[in-house]
UniProtKB/TrEMBL annotation, chains A, B:
This is Sodium/hydrogen exchanger. It comes from Pundamilia nyererei. GO terms for molecular function: potassium:proton antiporter activity; sodium:proton antiporter activity. InterPro entries: Cation/H_exchanger_CPA1, Cation/H_exchanger_TM, NaH_exchanger. The chain crosses the membrane at residues 61-80, 92-114, 126-143, 155-177, 189-211, 263-284, 345-369, 375-403, 415-435, 447-467.
Amino acid sequence: MTALWTLSLLLSASLLGCLAETSPDGSPLPHNLPPSLGTNSSDGSLSVDLPMALRVFSMDYHHVQAPFEIVLWIMLASLAKLGFHWSGRVPAVVPESCVLIMVGLLVGGVIYGVRHSAPPTLSADAFFLFLLPPIVLDAGYFLPGRLFFENLGTILWYAVLGTLWNVLGIGLSLYGVCLLAQSSLGDVSLLHCLLFGSLIAAVDPVAVLSVFQEMQVNEQLHILVFGESLLNDAVTVVLYKLFESFLRLPSVSGLDVLLGGCRVVVVGIGGLCVGLFFGLLAALTSRFTSRAQVIAPLFVFLYSYLSYLTSEMLHLSGIMAIVTCAATMKQYVEANVSERSNTSIQYFLKMWSSVSETLIFIFLGVSTIQDIHMWSWPFVCSTLLLCLIWRATGVLLLTAFVNKLRRNAVTFRDQFIIAYGGLRGAICFSLVFLIDDFPKKRLFITTTIVVILFTVFVQGMTIKPLVELLYVKRKKRALPTLSEEIHSRVRDYRNHS
Amino acid sequence: MTALWTLSLLLSASLLGCLAETSPDGSPLPHNLPPSLGTNSSDGSLSVDLPMALRVFSMDYHHVQAPFEIVLWIMLASLAKLGFHWSGRVPAVVPESCVLIMVGLLVGGVIYGVRHSAPPTLSADAFFLFLLPPIVLDAGYFLPGRLFFENLGTILWYAVLGTLWNVLGIGLSLYGVCLLAQSSLGDVSLLHCLLFGSLIAAVDPVAVLSVFQEMQVNEQLHILVFGESLLNDAVTVVLYKLFESFLRLPSVSGLDVLLGGCRVVVVGIGGLCVGLFFGLLAALTSRFTSRAQVIAPLFVFLYSYLSYLTSEMLHLSGIMAIVTCAATMKQYVEANVSERSNTSIQYFLKMWSSVSETLIFIFLGVSTIQDIHMWSWPFVCSTLLLCLIWRATGVLLLTAFVNKLRRNAVTFRDQFIIAYGGLRGAICFSLVFLIDDFPKKRLFITTTIVVILFTVFVQGMTIKPLVELLYVKRKKRALPTLSEEIHSRVRDYRNHS
């Protein structure tokens, strides 16, 4: 087990060393070619490298750089995951996300040491276009439909009102803090505070999933926390964009605020419609795959991704779209497609989402090693405190209302876990980098990283003991019996032949 | 069935229409934003679109353009494949590759009509880095090892000597043709003819696989044709690069020719070693995946692709590397990994390679619609004729030698199929675009396209009736019995629980 860890770390260190050596700033390598030949490589794959005398052996890193580095990062992520699960005791104590962030910190440190400059950060495009969709698709495809719709009212209650409560609460009280610490934080306006509040209030589905999956609390509590983290995306992202556009406007009128309210609804409902459309299209297409079974799984991925991209293009909620799309198509696809295809779809969704998740946490660690940090004790500490306070009071208040309408009330223990399980993650991180430059942007970035690390490490590591302490009802595990399993396979075989 | 075709064509036409409208030359869209806001989108995903007054609804195509268009192309390819297999009679008469090229021609025509400019061509980078590896990986992973090594001598004989014979034969006699037609082809040098010969002689594994898989000839004939098409890559690509570098040198010495000979060996053996290294590493890693089964399949893809990229980086034969890597790891991976993982690996390899193949043929069709064609009857016709003649004589001559050493001789019928099944495809096509500009480059491109279309359409469509006419021994099909299938699944279940 330690052998594997060592192997993985050695490999990654050497790989990254080579990477850092060969591309110090991501620019094409100089090789030792005359520039006239070097530039040739941009239009073709094979035409570089033979200068004035013929060489038997030559090398061209620039040609394969992009896919090579992506594969190396994925390899590092996979090896880290493998090492984590292979080591016997670590998984029992520390959640995977923490270990991965620590691996990221280590790798970032190595890169910083070798290069003497900051390692690459997780770009918002890479995150929103490539890393987030597989995770949300996986979540949507395996969403327990009945349970979700039974609790939809409560989930929406938390997701919409709870998020508004958090954003406004954190934003306004942070502005108060800035007014009190006038000397150092005087240049942070109310709108900046609200903007920051909207991104720091975003509960992250990736972080929540990763911690709650390992814990296995009862299903209802799980769907409440997870459902909220999925659906609050529409609200936080819209509020974020709203405040951002307010910052750009010369003045904010009442009409603008009203339009902003409309936008929240449009973004949510629009994402839902796009997802529904592509989900039904996928269900229809799956009817025709019986003679080309080999590409049947592909349509699940293609249509879902298309729904996500279309929503992003139209500035609707991509997360809503892909979850709806996956949930809509699921039962039709499962019925229309062979059992082997179903196995492959499920396996692949799980594989992809787990790699994405691993990459996100590693990159969170890597991106923490930066030159651009800016520190302010009052701002950082009060943000941390305010996040906790506003989330706790919000959950308590909203549950008091919602319990009057529910048959089975949300217990006080459940409320504590909901409030404490509101982890922040890569969504805040990506959003904070997108803020237009202003003097305190670096402080915002530092504070966001501190909040993420605090929630993932402190809350993520203590939530499991706390659940045990509070004796929250655990999920009952049900394994299929042998006869069930074989039965379903014989049925499948008959369908085939 | 026709409904599906219509749906697919309508969808693709409308999608491509939108595509052509929104990005006339692949450049970012102007939207109707002031440029200061428009340029903002390059550093972030969410920061565009809200100009001076708040909008409830907005759109940003540029942000998602790259993944969106890739997904659309894959979707078009998948739908075309689905339509082909759904239509009852077409697959019996026309090979899939022909139908796909025709779909490509149609789509290319539509794009040309809408845009009034040539559609995008298949870039050599996209082909060599992304489309070719999955196909060769699939071929290598499912390579029948015993059969391959039993026939390795014959395969190498065809692949090395046969290719040399073809390249030199076609190159030299084409130079003769150019000398005869001095008035129109006088500016084509001997080296240019040899360069062209080296790329036009490359038998294409993708085209060969696609035609021979549908035909199901006996296994030995299949491995001879397919093995040759895999291994001749090292020879053709090296010869191509050699002549290309000779063209750049001020003068060619005897030493250069000698070094060139060494390079052929280095490229082949080097690719083999790289593949072996990564294959063993993958076999080792698969031993540790038992506690993280969900990412086990990933390592098959990662290590194989890494072996391919490493070889390409070092200018070794990527095809040799990936085939060796896959063949080396296969038995270890299959033994170390659960049956569900194995199913997913196999399914995914097949899915990926079949999509790549489909995309390649569609793009061959699309890229044929060009503004840059140049026609010359003597050059095109003599190339076609010379390709056929030199391949036929080469196979006859080499088989005469090889039959003296083999236990079971290659029959005359088999020889005919080997010679006739030497289809050209996307490898030639990608290589011809990489030639440094010179006055007759456009003629080379046109001729290559004609040769590819001729081999795929005429030879590809007539080879099946010819096989039946010549009564070549067919492969015996063996389906697993019900008890075998269930048995293996029960065993798998026991391993799991």
